[in-house]
Amino acid sequence: MDRWYWCNSSLTSGEVVSTTVNGIRLYDGDKKTGYDDGRLTLTNHRLLWRHETQSSSLGLHLSLVVLVEEEAGSFTSSPKLLLHLAQPPHSQPAGPVAASSNSFIKLSFKHGGYSSFHQVLQKAIDNHGWEKAPSLPCNYGKQPGGKAIHTGILGIERAIQAKQEETNQNISHAFEDLKNLMGLAKDMVSLSKSISNKIKERSGDVSADDTTQFRSYLLSLGIDDPVTREAFGSETQYHHNLAKEITQALEDPVKEAGGVMLLSEVYCRINRARGLQLLSPEDVMHACHVMKKLGLSLNLHTFESGVQVVQITGLDQEKVVEATVEVLNCHEVDGVSAGDLARDCGMPLLLAQERLLQAEQCAKAVRDESSEGLRFFPNLFFSRS
């Protein structure tokens, strides 16, 4: 309420009434005030509120209005207009409140009409009629000394535009730095390969394990020359070379994961290794489909449930089932859920569930469905037959 000031109801030079509405109550933020059931007049310069028993009016200059929002009513409350306001100038006349902790007010419309009033109010704010003819002796929109401050919608638009220009410049500089960084990264990967080869050729001081670990650290910088669609004349060649790149980059991680990796994880890992040269899910899918045809060390496998994984070529499924059965045998009494297997073997939950179902299909496991969920047990009937 500290943005309102006491004034008479007479219009100033150049001021024209736009619309008038009755039954308006004023709010200070979300708090009701005693200024109820008044007549609200909108001019091209101000909002004027006056109760019929009062001789003076409360005025609010439109240059202080930053944003107007509608607040729908309910069974117990009237619809309202929420006005976000800028700080008033020091030269503003006295008002009903010296200072307020709220930066917005509300206008409650008991008899409706708030949407149409909102439209007229927004039009008056956009027209900036107060700039064409000053309505009050105080210098609204100016600081002491004559320096203009940008208030209202125009000021916000100018501030946003300036911020956008600054952001665009920062983004341009950032991309220039990123290009330089990408160039340095390629040099670093090439250097890492050269150093790794030289260390591997040396004998004596450096062990094979140290050499392997050093190479792993350096090559984790990423793929130095990723396959791109523009480098090949056809989709087939592109996907064939992409399949080779995925195999080369992920063969060791797949082995470390037990020989099987979910296709979703393959997609995430290869894109992380490629940096800005990102692949679409369709390209990764097509590349994985041709792995078996090309005789690569990785290939795509689809479970009966439809879950797809990339696995080591020639992976012995019987050994995978036996490894799952070993875990079941360790929990013969309580059984094993997919979450238990995932936690014990360090694998994704979805893959753990597929392994339990695979063991069940091979008659090595049986299931127990209860209110506690789905658990698997070793098939003792099969083992004792």
TrEMBL record:
GO terms for molecular function: phosphatidylinositol-3-phosphate binding; ubiquitin binding. It is found in: Cytoplasm; Endosome. It comes from the Eukaryota. It holds the Pfam family Vps36_ESCRT-II. GO terms for biological process: protein transport to vacuole involved in ubiquitin-dependent protein catabolic process via the multivesicular body sorting pathway. Residues 1-137 form the GLUE N-terminal domain. Its main location: cytoplasm. InterPro entries: GLUE_dom, PH-like_dom_sf, Snf8/Vps36, Vps36, WH-like_DNA-bd_sf, WH_DNA-bd_sf. Transmembrane segments: none annotated. Keywords: Cytoplasm, Endosome, Protein transport, Transport. Belongs to the VPS36 family. Component of the endosomal sorting complex required for transport II (ESCRT-II). PANTHER family: VACUOLAR PROTEIN-SORTING-ASSOCIATED PROTEIN 36. Component of the ESCRT-II complex (endosomal sorting complex required for transport II), which is required for multivesicular body (MVB) formation and sorting of endosomal cargo proteins into MVBs. This is Vacuolar protein-sorting-associated protein 36.
